[in-house]
Amino acid sequence: MTQATFASRLKRPLLVLLVALATFFVVDRLGDMVLRHGIDRYFGLDQPEAVLLVGHSHVVLGIDKSMLERRLGLPVANYARAGAALEDRVLMVRHYAELHPDGIRAVVFGVDNHLFTARGLSSNSYTLFYPHMDDPLVRGLIDRRAAGEWEVFQRQVSHLYRYDDVLLNAALRGWMGNWNNSVAGHFNPETLAAEVASGRFRRIEIDPAQVALFEQFLDESEQRGWPVFLTFVPTTAEWQNVEPARAAEVDALLHRLADEHPNVTFIDLREPWQHHSEFFIDPLHLNAEGGRAVTADLADRLGPLLEAQGR
Fold first, then answer.
1. Which of 70, 130, 157, 183 is deepest in the core (most CB within 10 A)?
2. Concatenated DSSP letters for 17-80?
3. Least reliable range by pLDDT among 50-64, 175-189, 206-220, 278-292
């Protein structure tokens, strides 16, 4: 076989390979653009000026974004992710502020008894940030928490690989404009009692490093003029009574931090809702009916505070 014949036979497979690669990258990048638009809309990252909701599943299920918007008469960005640790939530505020430097009217920051507990939430919550990994701020978090360089490299090559089922669902809901909590079900106290008796529950801890991280965030919020509302989304009274002494320590710490920062207000939504077991799907999370009741209460409390601050 002559060199010319070999080159001629090689040309077609190479051409097919190049076309396949080009097609892959075009489809991959276009798909990413479509999905990221849905993600940004779902989390409110496309809102140039908003009241910013930040938290984990308590906020996702406990605060109805659309209802809060209607009652406040203000745009609301619901940047909340199930499993988000404290570090994640602080990053979310900074990420929104990076996209919209003058866009934060107020931060409604979800707090709970485990705010300063370093362990127990999803260890891979950083993967929910992969759609925005090209942002240096987000990339810093991913590099600190990812299992290795290969995991990150795969997402650099294929942007569609950045989306798991949770993110695909969020993107779809963003495109559809659906922020509703449709979760039904009711809390069973007997299940919690069995978990407590067996020791299979998340214990309250106050990690000094987590406290320092939060204090740094509150200092930053004060410097940047962001009103911050530390909002305790209700859990059941039964859950509050699992470790009452430690829960009281967290309460005292949250009140102290609010007192030390003039821009910070503590909003405690536990009363009377923590006693309405019919509003919960489990000890920690509100169902759709409970979310609407708590959101109405939050709007009634938050509205006058925002008006007083000229927001």
1. 130
2. HHHHHHHHHHHHHHHHHHHHHHHHHHHTTT-SSEEEEEESHHHHHHS-HHHHHHHHTS-EEEEE
3. 175-189
Q: Is the sign of the CA dihedral 67, 288, 114, 41 positive or negative?
A: negative
Which two three-digit tokens encode residue 60? 């996702």
Give the pair of three-digit tokens for residue 156.
């650099």
Give phi and psi for 127, each to the nearest 5.
-65, -20
261: which 2 tokens?
Answer: 């920062």
Domains and CATH numbers, the chain: 3-308 (3.40.50.1110)
In the predicted structure, residue 4 carries a pLDDT above the cut 90: no
Structure-token pair, residue 89: 């939530």
pLDDT tens digit string along 106-141? 999 999 999 999 876 667 889 999 999 999 999 999
Paired tokens of 277: 């077991």
What is the distance between the alpha carbons of residues 17 and 87, in angstroms, rounded to a whole number?
Answer: 43
pLDDT tens string 203-239: 999 999 999 999 999 999 999 999 999 999 999 999 9
